[in-house]
Amino acid sequence: MHNFRKTLFNTVPKSRRKLCGKPEQIIRCMSVIDHPSDEKLVSKFQIPKGIMGQPTFHTHPHLIEPDFLTCGITQMEYRERRETLVQKLAAEVHNEHQSHIIVIPAANKQYMSDKIPYVFRQNSDFFYLTGCLEASAILVMVKPAQTDHFKSILFVHEKDEHAELWEGPRTGCHAATRLFAVDEARPVGNFPSYIAKVASTRPSILWSPRDANREVNDLVAPVWQAGAASGDPQKALHVMRSIKSPAEKELMKETCYIGSQAVNMAMAVTKPGVSEHYLTAVLDYSARASGAEHPAFPPVVAGGARATHIHYVTNNQLLNAEEMVLVDSGSQRWLYNSDISRTWPVSGKFTKHQRILYELILNVQKRLIQILGEHRPALDQLFDSMCRLLGKNLQQEGILPRNIDGNDLVGKAYRLCPHHVSHYLGLDVHDTPLVRRHMPVRTDMVVTVEPGIYIRPDDTSVPPEFRGIGIRIEDDVLITDGEPLVLTASCVKEPEDVEAVVGKHSL
Questions:
Q1: For residue 203, is the peptide bond before it cis, meaning its omega torsion is within 30 degrees of 0?
Q2: What is the sign of the dihedral through the CA atoms of 406, 412, 418 and 421?
Q3: pTM, whole model, 2 decimals?
Q4: How far apart are CA 427 and CA 435, in angstroms?
Q5: What are the residues facing 214 on neighbouring strands?
Q6: Which of 36, 63, 121, 301 has the highest CB neighbour count under 10 A?
Q7: Residue 304, Ramachandran bin (φ over 0: left; ψ between -120 and 50: alpha; else beta)
Q8: How does the average pLDDT of the chain come out, rounded?
Q9: Of 358, 360, 369, 357, which is closest to residue 495 (Cα–Cα)?
Q10: Angle, in degrees to the nearest 10, between helices 379-396 and 352-375
Q11: pLDDT tens digits, 167-198
């Protein structure tokens, strides 16, 4: 691992090495975060010893530091998230005579074929509230009427020697109470009878997301049919998730660094004749070797005119010397995601017209990041700014006619970049979709900034020398009280830096 990072580091001139990070930097889980010192912040629960259904610092000290439930996040933080959600939902109703029952399901295993599961990926809302990585679990929070107190009950699979022989360890009910700092843990098979009993209290509101887990929906449907009022907790949850805690910000910095170095390495091994599939493998290997569980999503590795197909993921063509290659990739580390796009010349040298378009998109992106800091606009407003900037700059280069303006110019720019310029980022790549993009951004949000241009080979409205080119430059940005912090700044993007990296290494 040390040699792997050192190789990349040495491909960059000394004047630019700060962009790539130090080769000896080893990402270790949250080593920059001090342990809680205030006794009020220290959970009364302790991480139990023994083999659990997920890593703990007892079994995986290389992944989790002492006193943390998951990488960088304590039991207390998960408990506080649950408390905040209950308070938010109770405040929405303004009726102290109603009890609240909140049901948040985990994800179920998904299968690619008979008995062959995909790699399990936990439901983001469930993980955010529990830190639990086990499939098919269910979190229930019950707040009785006329009280501020509530109880957390976690339904998990009980210990089962035969099942664990095939599927690996389970935490089980006895240890789950202490591990996840809940009030009770019960077998998941007891959930139907429990929810029916607890919901019989009148009046009550049952909060449960309708689209998170179909099996759990079927189990709670009789409660709704019996007349219980219903609500969806996801909007309140997504508002909470959109604002990152100090621990989450550190996790986002880590995954963005990992994703950035993976893209840098893909640049470094790019040469004419290599395949898109080869770069896909380099991205995957680099991210995993640096601490990611897996890619955040199937990457786009699109050479030449294939880059004008925004979601091209076939990645099976060879790269030619006269082309550029567009890469959109990211890494997932402890469920937190990076999302990065870069475009570079396969030969290692931009042609005149490639560079014109590349610098045009880069300048638009830099200005959009400045606008985020200066005005803190809604993401929809940022998109409008992108279309206007893109249209104006394309006119200045003679790529769009100079005799159009206003909405006509914006429309032509939108035709060349038909995707939004930004989305929220965190536990999901397109994070917190119930936080609408017409709301102004807030401090401690993480968003992408990703202008692009996609000119088809048959687009006769554009001069021929610019046809068949697709370019996107995307960074992940933390909104702060001051200037925005570009979390992916270590991923090279200045033209000179790109040319200094491309093709300088072979695996």
A1: yes
A2: negative
A3: 0.91
A4: 14
A5: none
A6: 301
A7: left
A8: 90
A9: 358
A10: 150
A11: 999 999 999 999 999 999 999 999 999 998 88
